[in-house]
Amino acid sequence: MNDLIILTLLLEGPKHGYRLKQETAMFGAKQQFHNNTIYPLLSRLLQEKLISQREGEGERGQTRLLYELTPNGRQHLVKTLAEFTETDADNEGAFRMRVGLFDLLDVATRRRILDLRERCLVSRLKRLEAIGNSRTISGWPAESFNFVVSSIEREREWIVKMFAQIES
User: Fold this and answer.
1) Full-prediction pTM beyond 0.90?
2) How confident is the prediction for the chain on average, in pLDDT?
3) Which pLDDT band holds residue 28 (cuts at 50, 70, 90)?
4) Closest residue by Cα to residue 67 from 23, 9, 116
5) Distance (Å, rounded) from C-alpha 62 to C-alpha 32?
6) How many CA atoms are closer than 13 Å to the CA of 32, on its beta-carbon side?
7) Among 6, 36, 93, 115, which is least packed, fewest CB within 10 Å?
8) Which helix (H) or strand (E) holds 87?
9) Residue 20 in contact with residue 14, Cβ under 8 Å?
């Protein structure tokens, strides 16, 4: 997933390592990558020729190393995004990342991603229904349980809307 985050951030254009590090925090509302994560990752992506590196001028006139997505890196990103599995469908972050990058994916891949996520959500609802039918839930546990069920139902409604957008 870290590879996808960096390659996605580089879709916007060249960036230096520190900026990439900062932007990773915005990407998933998580903490930014640590130096021990970002720089070895950039090094590996360079070795794999998914990104390139060049010197550029920084904001204060200093020289910075800028990283840029290569055509091979873009192809790799699209291929990896399209390799959406049932495990990915169960991961909210992996699913939302794909939806956010639907412009890069063909219509058939978009449909497959939405279908896999829909099946995952239906399966979750069935499990929750079995839990709800097996015992009486009240008070705060019921509040939490009902929130989860309604969240899944809202996401399913969103998926229906996305299917309609794909078809139009």
Assistant:
1) no
2) 92
3) low
4) 9
5) 23
6) 12
7) 36
8) helix 86-89
9) no
